[in-house]
Every structure is written in structure tokens, then in C-alpha cells.
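hiii so um. not sure if this is the right channel but i have a protein structure encoded as C-alpha cells and i wanna go backwards to a sequence. like what aa goes where. can anyone help
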């Protein structure tokens, strides 16, 4: 069983910062790409940032220059540093990981979501 547990959401004023964390636990071989998505009320879930196991990161245009994704492979954890937050960043944030099972099968897992609320 593979689990993703997120932490770090909360309420912050516009211009403030938050750091989200997502730890992957369970039995697996390794992790390919890890990413963060968000979903605001009435909207579809959208990609925020993604970081492969090797190579360059990718960001949504709306967060470029403000958000930074990183990962600690030794701890199977992905982070999202969010600076200069805006009210339009308010959403439930979900982490995602493409996990290589011991069987060799690649399976996508999601965290439970963490609420980020930015007040104006």
C-alpha cells in the first residue's frame, strides 16, 4: 500500500508564503515524476508544478517566478514553496507521484489534499 500525506496548508494574507510537503510511504521500488495540482471551487484540477526524477521542472504560467517545487529523494518527499501568494491561489492543493511498484508497474497516486486560503 502506497500513501501520500500532505502538510503545510493554511490561511495566509496576500503577499505571504507557505510551504507544502508531501511524503510518500509504503512498499515500492522508486518514484518517477512528482507534482502538485490544485482545484478551486467550480474549477477543474490543474497542474501547478511537476518535477521529474531527473531533468528540469515545469510550472504553470500563473505561478512561474513565485512557486518553487523541489524533492528529497532520500525521504521520498516533494515540496512546494509558495511565495507572493495571491487570492487567486486559493484552492485545495494535491500532490501526485508516479510510483514504480516492486512488480515494475507504474501507478499514479494522489494525496488527500490540503487547503490553501489567501486573503486579500
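sure thing!! here u go:
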Amino acid at each position: 500500500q502506497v500513501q501520500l500525506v500532505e502538510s503545510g496548508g493554511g490561511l495566509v494574507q496576500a503577499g505571504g508564503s507557505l510551504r507544502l510537503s508531501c511524503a510518500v510511504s509504503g512498499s515500492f521500488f522508486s518514484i518517477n515524476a512528482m507534482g502538485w495540482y490544485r482545484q478551486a471551487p467550480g474549477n477543474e484540477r490543474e497542474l501547478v508544478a511537476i518535477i521529474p526524477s531527473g531533468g528540469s521542472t515545469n510550472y504553470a504560467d500563473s505561478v512561474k517566478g513565485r512557486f518553487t517545487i523541489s524533492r528529497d529523494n532520500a525521504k521520498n518527499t516533494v515540496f512546494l514553496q509558495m511565495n507572493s501568494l495571491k487570492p487567486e491561489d486559493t484552492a485545495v492543493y494535491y500532490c501526485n507521484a508516479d510510483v514504480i511498484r516492486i512488480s515494475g508497474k507504474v501507478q499514479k497516486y494522489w494525496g488527500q489534499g490540503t487547503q490553501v486560503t489567501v486573503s486579500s
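oh and The chain has a mean pLDDT of 96.
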